[in-house]
Amino acid sequence: MIVFLNGQFVTEDRAVVSAFDRGFLYGDGLFETLRVANGKAFRWGQHLERLRRGADFLKIPMPFPPDAWRGFGDELIVRNQMPDALLRLTLSRGAGARGYSPRDARNPTLLISLHAVPPADSENPPRWRVITSSVRLAATGPLSQFKTCNKLSQVLARAEADAANADEALLLDTDGHAVESSSGNLFWIEQGAVRTPPVADTILPGVTRAVVLDLCHTLGLPILETRLTPGQLLQTDGVFVSLTSIGVAEAVSLGRETL
Amino acid sequence: MIVFLNGQFVTEDRAVVSAFDRGFLYGDGLFETLRVANGKAFRWGQHLERLRRGADFLKIPMPFPPDAWRGFGDELIVRNQMPDALLRLTLSRGAGARGYSPRDARNPTLLISLHAVPPADSENPPRWRVITSSVRLAATGPLSQFKTCNKLSQVLARAEADAANADEALLLDTDGHAVESSSGNLFWIEQGAVRTPPVADTILPGVTRAVVLDLCHTLGLPILETRLTPGQLLQTDGVFVSLTSIGVAEAVSLGRETL
Questions:
Q1: Nearest by CB to A162, which of B101, B113, B182?
Q2: Please, are residues A93 and A28 in contact by the beta-carbon 8 Å criterion?
Q3: Is the confidence at residue A144, as pLDDT, over 90?
Q4: Which of A64, B80, B143, B170 could pair with A68 as two cysteines, CB 3.0-4.6 Å apart?
């Protein structure tokens, strides 16, 4: 496997960063995951725009002109002969002096890597057994709106799903409302409308979430942005999750309850 | 500078980790900072114990017997001839498959590094100008109790202090109570008692915080664990912050107000 790291195409074993990179020390960075199909990465524009807004907020300079990023990604797909893949962009603040102050870190790290797509039935969306995680997502203000490298809550939730032999974990906010799954946005169907929690406080504005909403508009399906508890989720007419890697997955159970 | 990385003593430029280390990708790790003086690192026991509890919680195996860690640190101090320094322990989950699941990551990364101590007057504690950060610390449950590598809130708060030409930033919780500074625990003096917020929800149980409390007990000073707002902080008889790197710093102003 070849990866792109700071302007060079290197083999995976040579893809190393300084142990003093602030990405490693503090999770001081951002990432995006894009779906690659038939040799093309989808929705570069939206993913790069979300990353750019996060980089603006964190004041991490974007190395290379953003247009060049797409070229690096395209070359990576060709070099690895991986026309079907996931493409991950990782931007960290790079190495700096010890301590939280980002003042002395001026050389950001850019990593672009390809990864296998989770196996899936090409006809039908995956059917997931979901558990409710004990991890609560707190409203951390603006930070929640960006795909940062501070992902321990999601790692813990996902580990709970693994331990329960489930496919995914549902996360609640500190008020007990269902907000998202460890790696995707939450949707449910009720009274003929597609519903999803509003993007606010704790909810990442997913690129695939936007695709689902666009599709509903196109199909003339009513959409409602609203909140609910896991108990209320059991009373709905269907639950699904949207995420880049596989598009949409149906939730067929929540804990011991069938959905 | 020589650093310890996964069993080897290497020069700083060779201290590299995989770009697929989950510490770099998700902040999936823990750290501790110890004060080294006269060639000895202080309070190994407490720091290692906090790290061990965090590693248990995150299910990151500790590489090498914990007793050996102290030997690595001692050797590092000798090799670098740095009898006065800060010693940082960083433990990450190491490289694994793409995605939040930690299932396939089985080779944790251990980094031990030395850093310069912030310059200080040996007679008097530093006098800090403090600002109130716009970043709110959310109660994220058990995670708050460990010194994890998810530190973007602290990085942002510290950057606000830098931008205001201040020495430190005070963080509030989502209820508006003052909880800690970007890198230390908060104390104030009121009605003859030393006061500090209780360790719960959002407050990291600092090793130096415990030293301050022990000292107050020894001196027979009354201690109260309680909460207050930044406005109330202005009415107290003195405010200070405890942190490993310099011990105790006095806060002399909060924003435009003198303390």
A1: B101
A2: yes
A3: no
A4: A64
End-to-end CA distance of chain A: give it in Å, rounded: 40
Q: How far apart are CA A167 and CA A156, in angstroms?
A: 14
E-state strands within B163-233: 168-173, 178-181, 185-190, 193-196, 223-225
Identify the CA nearest to B60 among candidates B15, B26, B34, B33.
B26
Q: Cβ separation of A152 and B58 shorter than 8 Å?
A: yes
End-to-end Cα separation, chain B, in angstroms: 40
Nearest CA in chain A to B32: A25
Residue range A102-130: mean pLDDT, rounded: 90
ipTM for the whole predicted complex goes beyond 0.90? yes
Say yes or no for a CB contact (<8 Å) between B158 and A100.
yes
Q: How many secondary structure helices (H) and strands (E) does chain B include? A: 6, 16
Contact A98 B86 (CB under 8 A): yes
DSSP letters for A189-257: EETTEEEE--SSTT----HHHHHHHHHHHHHT--EEE----HHHHTTSS-EEEEETTTEEEEEEEETTE
Chain B residue numbers with beta carbons less than 8 Å from the beta carbon of A139 are: 138, 174
The answer to whether B154 touches B183, Cβ cutoff 8 Å, is yes
Of A17, A136, A154, the CB nearest to B17: A17
pTM (2 d.p.): 0.95
Chain B environment of A151 (Cβ under 8 Å) = 25-28, 100, 150
B50-103: pLDDT as tens digits: 999 999 999 999 999 988 999 999 999 999 999 999 999 999 999 998 999 999
Within chain A, how many helices (H) and strands (E) appear?
A: 6, 16
Residue A254, classified by CB atoms within 10 Å of its CB into exposed (0-12), middle (13-18) or buried (19+), is buried
Alpha-carbon distances of B205 from A34, A205, B113, B145, rounded to whole Å: 39, 34, 23, 7
- Work out the minimum CA distance from A177 to partner chain B, whole angstroms: 15
For chain B, give the longest Cα–Cα distance: 56
**Are A137 and A153 spatial neighbours (Cβ–Cβ below 8 Å)?**
yes
Q: Where are the alpha helices (DSSP H) in A59-133?
A: 66-80
Nearest to B172 by CA among B164, B161, B182, B160: B182
Residue A201 has pLDDT above 70, yes or no: no
The answer to whether A153 and B143 are in contact (CB under 8 A) is yes
Q: Specify whether the CB–CB gap between A226 and A197 falls below 8 A.
A: yes
